[in-house]
């Protein structure tokens, strides 16, 4: 019987930092995450305005750069109103439960290799665990309790519906997200974030595990409640969703949690699929690209690329219906993830047996799976009946008052079609008047 060697993550660099260095690294992560919403809100408003041929913020500060600061100060200084029908302890606790886990999840994200900080060698990572990725999934799952409890404690119908939607949404898409991570675990043989980054020193997993990457990107948009998956706060039917009854600083904490979560899932996508802090090609040819403080720059650029993707989706795609959203999670993402994990496990077994060419085979199979799924989606969209087939146009010269989905009066010169009224019997009318 042949015994295979198992590569365990090397975590010897962690747990030896002095107290002052732990405080410095913690403050650095906190400030980075605190500044991210300020920059992201301004960038989002400017990018969306540019895509929609508008101007965007341009009043407060040069080119509107201080608009986010002004909005934050305004939210903090506004009067905090507490409705009379709320469960006050839980109502006040919900924003904290939404914001704190968003910061905690960033503790195991590797920002770079070992560097020297005031003469002490330390990795650019607060800490790491043998199950670091599972820690991130557990912490981000706690954040949904803030949304659920906010909707329940508000004592109002629409926030409650928003909280219930969020529960079903997170359960559905966290399954697909966890399955996409399972393929990474199989290939890297570790659940440590630093170990996964180290395993991508030559080839990034976005190429070897393309289906897993696309599934994760879709799931992370649903996890952060961003368009087109912002169903828990769909103002079209739920006013503002779970935070309808919140104002002032409590409302700002929900917005802070949303943007910090965007940074966290973007950093996790960078770590799991884009090589983490490793420099992209052709910069990787340079010997010093993956040493010193340069990797932190590459990591930040990758994270903000995903952040731009969030903004792009918001300004491009309309909000999905709830049934479409749940069908995609349960009937598309999860089945594809299960089939893909079986394929990755097969290639992993071939690699353990010493077969060469497994990486090229995995790349080809992953590309074929993605092309096949996109082809099926395109075919389904092409075969759906057109609107004019579902609702035939009225005869020429007549006017359809329900063409836009709601009744409108005819314009001068338009002819109303003849409507067939349903006759009502005298007995039915008599019974209704007696009742």
UniProtKB/TrEMBL annotation:
Q: Which Pfam families does the record associate with it?
A: NADHdh
InterPro entries of this UniProt entry?
A: NADH_UbQ_OxRdtase_su1/FPO, NADH_UbQ_OxRdtase_su1_CS
> Where this protein primarily resides, as one coarse class?
membrane
Q: What class of enzyme is it?
A: translocase
Q: Name one GO molecular function term.
A: quinone binding
| Reaction equations catalysed | a quinone + NADH + 5 H(+)(in) = a quinol + NAD(+) + 4 H(+)(out)
Gene Ontology terms: biological process? aerobic respiration
E.C. number: 7.1.1.-
As for membrane topology, the entry says: Multi-pass membrane protein
Q: Which UniProt keywords apply?
A: Cell membrane, Membrane, NAD, Oxidoreductase, Quinone, Translocase, Transmembrane, Transmembrane helix, Ubiquinone
Q: Which residues cross the membrane?
A: 20-43, 90-112, 132-152, 173-191, 203-222, 259-280, 292-312, 332-351, 357-378
Which family does this protein fall into?
Answer: Belongs to the complex I subunit 1 family.
The name this protein carries in UniProt is: NADH-quinone oxidoreductase subunit H
Gene behind the chain: nuoH
């Amino acid at each position: 019987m042949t015994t295979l060697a198992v590569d365990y993550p090397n975590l010897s660099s962690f747990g030896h930092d002095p107290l002052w260095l732990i405080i410095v690294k913690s403050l650095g992560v906190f400030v980075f995450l605190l500044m991210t919403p300020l920059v992201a809100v301004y960038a989002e408003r400017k990018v969306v305005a540019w895509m929609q041929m508008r101007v965007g913020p341009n009043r407060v500060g040069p080119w509107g750069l201080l608009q986010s600061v002004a909005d934050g100060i305004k939210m903090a200084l506004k009067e905090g109103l507490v409705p009379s029908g709320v469960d006050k302890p839980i109502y006040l606790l919900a924003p904290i439960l939404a914001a704190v886990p968003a910061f905690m999840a960033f503790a195991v994200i590797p920002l770079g290799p070992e560097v020297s900080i005031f003469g002490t060698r330390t990795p650019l990572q607060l800490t790491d665990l043998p199950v670091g990725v599972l820690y991130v999934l557990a912490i981000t799952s706690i954040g949904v309790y803030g949304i659920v409890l906010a909707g329940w404690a508000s004592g109002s119908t629409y926030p409650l519906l928003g909280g219930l939607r969020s529960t079903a949404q997170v359960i559905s898409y966290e399954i697909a997200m966890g399955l996409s991570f399972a393929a990474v675990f199989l290939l890297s043989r570790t659940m440590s974030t630093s170990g996964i980054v180290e395993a991508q020193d030559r080839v990034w997993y976005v190429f070897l595990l393309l289906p897993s990457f696309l599934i994760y990107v879709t799931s992370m948009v649903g996890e952060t409640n961003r368009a087109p998956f912002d169903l828990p706060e769909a103002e079209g039917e739920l006013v503002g969703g779970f935070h309808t009854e919140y104002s002032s600083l409590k409302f700002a904490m929900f917005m802070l949690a949303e943007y910090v979560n965007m940074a966290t899932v973007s950093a996790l996508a960078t770590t799991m699929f884009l090589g983490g802090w490793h420099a992209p090609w052709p910069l990787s040819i340079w010997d010093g690209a993956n040493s010193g403080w340069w990797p932190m720059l590459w990591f930040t650029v990758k994270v903000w690329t995903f952040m731009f993707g969030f903004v792009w989706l918001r300004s491009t795609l309309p909000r999905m219906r709830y049934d479409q959203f749940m069908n995609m999670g349960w009937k598309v993402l999860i089945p594809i993830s299960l089939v893909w994990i079986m394929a990755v496990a097969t290639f992993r077994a071939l690699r353990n047996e010493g077969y060469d060419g497994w990486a090229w085979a995995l790349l080809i199979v992953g590309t074929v799976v993605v092309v096949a799924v996109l082809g099926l989606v395109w075919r389904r969209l092409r075969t759906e009946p057109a609107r004019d087939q579902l609702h035939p146009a009225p005869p020429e010269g007549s006017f359809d008052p329900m063409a836009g989905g709601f009744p409108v009066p005819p314009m001068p010169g338009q002819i109303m079609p003849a409507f067939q009224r349903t006759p009502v019997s005298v007995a039915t009318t008599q019974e209704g008047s007696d009742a």
